[in-house]
Every structure is written in C-alpha cells, then in structure tokens.
Amino acid sequence: MPEDYLDKELASDEIWWPPRTDQKVRGRLAYKDTINLSLFSAVDTTDEPVIFGNSNKFGRCTIFEAYSKENDNHSLPAPSSRFQATYAILGVHCESREEPIFNNISFHFPELCYFLEHDAFSTERHPDGKSTTTYTPQQSFRTSILDDSCTVYIGSGMSELGGGMESLTLIHRPSISFYFKSPESFNGILSLSDKVIRLFTLLLGKRTYLTEFNYACPDPMMSEQILQRRSRPPKPEWCFPIALLNRIKAYWPNLLEKWLGNEDIHTTALLLHHGMSDEGFLEDRFLSLAQALETYCRLNQPDNQYMDEDSYQKIQQKLLNSLPEATPRSFRQSFTHKLKFANQFGLKKRIKLELDGLDDKTVRLFCLDKSKFADKVVATRNWLVHQGEREPSQTFSNHELFPAAMSLQTLMLMLIYKWLGCPEHEVRQWLMDSDQLNKFNLVHHELRKGKIVSPIA
C-alpha cells in the first residue's frame, strides 16, 4: 500500500460495488457522509454491518458501521437505499472464495500511548463539523513474517469520540499496522495477529484486542469469523514501566523479529499470564508458573546435556541390549521412551542454571537459598501433579504456596524481560517498586533498607 494513502482523507467521488457487476454509483464516501448505492455486498453481524466496496480514487475498501437512514432505523442497508457510513478502512478484497487476500491489519492498544509518547486521550475539535481520518506513522521498519516481506508501522489513527452540531471531538487511537508486500493466507494472518497481541500484552501489561482488521471477503461466514475477533475486552494484568518501554524503542525491530521467530516463548508467556491471573485455584496458578518456568528453561537452554549425543547413544544401546528377552513389550517401550530424555538436564538443574545467571541482588528478590528454592519448586510441582506421599521438608507447605507462587512470578517476569533484551538492573528496580508485588509482602520498602523478604528462609 503506497504511503501517501496513510494521510489522505478517506473519501471518494465515485464508488462501485462488486462482486457480480460493474454497475457504478455516483456519490461521496466520507466521514459521517450519507450516500446512495444501487448495488453492494453487505454482511450483518452481531456487532455491526460491514460493506465491501471499491473506490476509483483509493482502491478497494471496507466500510464498517453502515446503517440505513430510512426512518432513523439502524439496520443493514438494502440495495438502492440511502445509508450512513461511520468510517471507512482501506483494504484489499479477495478475488476468489477459496483464498481470501489481505494486505493490511491494524491493532488498537490502549496503553500504546506510552510507547508513542503522546496522550491517548488528546482531542482535536473541528468547528465546521468536518473531519478527516488520518494515520501518522511514528516509526517504521521492514521485517520478515510468514516467509514474506512486510512493512510495519507504529503510530496512531484518529476516530470519533463525540460531539454536537457545532463541533466534533476526535480521539487518538494508538495502533500498529502491518502492510504486506504480497497477499497472505487467511490462517497465516490470524496466526500473526495472535502473536502480535501476545507480545504487546506482555510488554504493555494488559490484554489488548484487535479493533481494525482491514480485510475484504465476499464469504459472509468467513467475514463473521474475522469480526468476532474484533471485540476482545482488555483485562489488566500488570503495568510495564515506561522507562523500559523507552529502552525497547531503540531496538524494536530486533525485538519483534525475535518474538515472531520463536514459538516456544509464546507458550511460556501464556502460561505466565494464567499463573498471574486471579482466576483458578492457587495450586493451578503455581503449576502454570512452574510450567512456564520449565518451557522457558528449555527455550533458553536447548543444548544442555550431560554428555555429547554420540557418547550417550552408545550407553543407551547397551542398556537396551541388557534387557532380558522375556521383558514385556510395554515395559521395553516405556524404558526406551524414558532413556530418550535421560541425557537432558532435569528441571531442577535448569532452574539452578538460570538462577546462577542472575545477579545476587536479583535472586534476593524471591529467595535466599537458590538450591533450596529450585528443589522445593520441582518437588512441589511433582507432588501436585502426581500426588502420593508428601514430604513436608521437600515441598512448600500450604501457607508457603502463595508466596512461593509470587516468587515464581517474579522470577519469570525477570527472565522473560531479560530474554527480550531489557537490562536486568532496570527490571529489578521496577520489581522492587512494583505495587503489585508490594501488596503481597514479597517485595516492599523494607527491601530498600537492606532487609530481605522471602518465602524461603
């Protein structure tokens, strides 16, 4: 999509509506304008009507919230009726029902204003009651996504907030948009949107949602599937410090490439979100955090083994050959399966390696004894999963389970932010100042006085 589209008014003097004829309709499509149409394709959803059209001036476009003007009835417009278009989005229509085509997706992030360094609720008034919808890129770069080249814009759009007959108030809506060099498949775009949403959820501290999916598809069922993804209410999780956001801006392209290029970190982040939520039992949250830690350890330590693979294969083969011929087949299969992982470091050793890679000041935020902490995390995880007899000295007690979960949460936040490239000392200072952790008495003002607060004595 040419860059000059980004700052033009979304208006056209001539509109025609596919997919079956070339009949053209004279009219004007502008912000809050009313136009006449004699032929168009529309889809009615639970959220809002959607119309797919084409502008000779701007190319194909998608119109949302198009309502009939007859008798002030906000219903889906009928052919040859007058209707009011609330706003228009530039996009590309698909040419066949089998392969939908997209060239642009946009996301709205309420907290992205901190990243863009402007107020999300700054307003602009137009005395004449007219307005233009603009998009001003703040930052752009190229990246490789889904085996294709893509230009990414981080900026803000403007949409109507309210107003009267004499004025119109606009609200800045921070967003991130992807403009693709060539069309991508339907499932590929949805996969990309999920990845980007997860990244900004992690960075900005709140679950966000997709508000503008610039697409065009004559298949009503597929269109409805896309629109259902546009209403994900944000849910507060934790607040990422503005100081770290500013540091991220310097190397944003590398950060995004790293995030999109590694599927494992997405699983880790989702498990972390579940463990930090207020939903579910405490045991569920602890298990989610412990599993998040394990997936991260495997991501960050992919080649940690006790010996090289060739040496281990010789030992493994000798062990398998030593089994008597009368050994039951089920036991042989189980034994063989376990041997495949015997050369890999266990979770306990992996956790200790991660702790050894952190400064002592950081480790003191959540434990005093690194070895004891790792032992209890693994023992408690195993007991919660397999039950059986519980050894009190090796597992967290019931009253220790909650602060232990908070310790895991603190550790996971540090590890993931550090993996993304954030300086450890800045993340550590944020954790020390975090109101969320303070209220759980895990890290509070006494820590700054040299005292240590930890669930592990």
UniProtKB/TrEMBL annotation:
Highest taxon listed in the record's lineage: Bacteria
InterPro entries documented for this protein: ApeA_NTD, HEPN_Apea
Short name of one Pfam family: ApeA_NTD1
Domain called Apea-like HEPN: residue spans: 287-424
Domain ApeA N-terminal residue range list: 16-259
Protein name: Uncharacterized protein
Organism (species): Thalassoglobus neptunius
Lineage: Bacteria, Pseudomonadati, Planctomycetota, Planctomycetia, Planctomycetales
